[in-house]
Specification:
Helix content is about 5%, strand content about 40%. It is mainly β and about 120 residues long. The chain is elongated and about 50 Å long.
């Protein structure tokens, strides 16, 4: 059985430092936005249409690109802040932070992007 790959970056570092990846299709450079997938994986995702010249005829093609960091799904979820305030003998815990990217809905297979960008950057 193959050994699992350990992800070399934390969720916090990825969220803070990841930038869009640029790809080139023919002569067009396209920025692929950072994506925090609903499955828990980290990476980049693009879904859009482009035209490709085939013998002088421009044909529309659908581009679906999913770059997933190997092992990122197994990373621990970011913990809520450990801040605790004491007031008149009662403990008050900070509310857990909500990851806005987790609210994007279903995994990329059922999402309809039509050129929209998600995640960081554009």
């Amino acid at each position: 059985m193959a050994k699992k790959t350990v992800c070399p970056i934390s969720r916090a570092d990825f969220s803070a430092k990841a930038k869009p990846v640029t790809i080139k299709i023919n002569d067009e450079e396209i920025a692929v936005p950072v994506k925090l997938f609903s499955t828990g994986s980290l990476g980049w995702y693009l879904n859009r249409k482009v035209e490709i010249d085939v013998g002088g005829v421009k044909v529309p093609v659908q581009v679906g690109l999913n770059l997933t960091i190997v092992g990122s799904k197994e990373l621990p979820q970011d913990a809520p802040p450990a801040h605790t305030a004491h007031t008149a003998g009662h403990e008050t815990h900070a509310a857990p932070t909500h990851d806005a990217h987790a609210a994007h809905g279903a995994e990329h297979k059922s999402e309809s992007h039509h050129g929209a960008t998600h995640g960081h950057g554009s």
